[in-house]
Amino acid sequence: MRERALASDLGYRITESLTTEVGPRLAGSEADARAVKWAEAKFKELGFDKVWTEPVTFPKWERRSERAEVLGAHRQPLALTALGGSPAGQVEAEVVRFADLAALEAAPAGSLAGKIAFVDYRMERARDGAGYGPGGRVRSRGPSAAIRAGASAFLMRSAGTDSHRNPHTGITRFDDGLTPIPSAALAAPDADQLARLSARGPIKVSLALDCGWDGEATSYNVIGEIRGKSKPEEVVIIGGHLDSWDLGTGAIDDGAGVGLTMAAAKLIGQTRLRPARSVRVIAFANEEQGLHGGKAYALKHAKDVAKHQIGAESDFGAGRIYAYSSSAPDYAQAADKQIAEALAPLGIEHTPGKGGPGPDISPFAAGGLAWARLAQDGSDYFDYHHTPDDTLDKIDPKALAQNVAAYAVFAYLAASAEGDFGSRAKQVTPPEE
């Protein structure tokens, strides 16, 4: 099965189908609804034994238009994109640059009255994506910090590692009790340009965003299952998220995750000796704006966590997998070691104790679900993440085939393991919708 996966382009073809036939899939949009129908049809086309949907309801955010320019003697346009969750608004004001989030958070209340806060933090590149934590915090906490200091709008250097003129979007939040302000991310060269202009003296920027929340929408977790031979009620879950941001076509984030896990389960279904347990693939709804699909699945299946053997999500692009780890307890170490040994020929190192669950897996993991991490090389992931450049050509078909092989090996052996792999119900409050 491992060798068949390496020789197959099925994962790539599924990803190509999604990104070509549907394209960008902003949660709650018409394209999101088409993606749900696509996923149902694809599961059935691939011969999954059972296919169904589970509803997921969430606030709907829309992007309509966005523009910005430097005013005055150095008048010129700026390439930027609204952050998800930003309200609409038009602002013309002086820009105040901050080197990082901490500097903005230290700004006295009222000190930015009538001004635009600009955080110029440069995200660091790392194979495991470690630089995204600090970069993502600028996006999630920066707007609220700007509001507290009295700012009329918020700008940030995109949370990305490229030098292209492609801004990176992503969801932001506003703390309770604060009135949201227009918030956007600048492409890296435009952040550099704005920083150079700011160093020459006071600079004014005009910002116009047409975007915002528009009621509620309902999408669906789309689920396909390869039925187990002797313990079909027990399941191993794998998957990715079906939605994407609207700037690119959602190839690496996360069409590849959907494609490779569908392909891995298809291979398992073709094996002469079916595993004891069922393998369930979940195409999660609306991960991008708050893990809505993962939370809904965890809530709906909270009472059945002990029937879920283990879960793994692919949501970090399509780079080669280089490491494997899991939360398997002591009594499941033999099964965990068997998986690690079968993954080793793929160039995957066993790294016990490292990592954590994938984003949509994490709400269920908080309720006792055992998790596995198949760590993808994300050295260039944040060059394309949440940008217009997130397109199919960024995927290496051979690397994607290695991912399919790894997920097929992992899911097959986890579904075939003797005894319980480790999921346990915990006395915790189920995640809220």
TrEMBL record:
Signal peptide extent: none
Name the record gives this protein: Carboxypeptidase Q
Domain Peptidase M28: 221-406
GO molecular function: carboxypeptidase activity; metal ion binding; metallodipeptidase activity
Domain of life: Bacteria
GO cellular component terms, A-Z: extracellular region; lysosome
Organism from which the protein derives: Lysobacter firmicutimachus
Gene3D superfamilies in the record: 3.50.30.30, Zn peptidases (3.40.630.10)
InterPro entries: CPQ, Peptidase_M28
Pfam family of the protein (one): Peptidase_M28
This protein's UniProt keywords: Carboxypeptidase, Endoplasmic reticulum, Glycoprotein, Golgi apparatus, Hydrolase, Lysosome, Metal-binding, Metalloprotease, Protease, Secreted, Signal, Zinc, Zymogen
GO biological processes: proteolysis
Location of the protein in the cell: Endoplasmic reticulum; Golgi apparatus; Lysosome; Secreted
Subunit structure: Homodimer. The monomeric form is inactive while the homodimer is active.
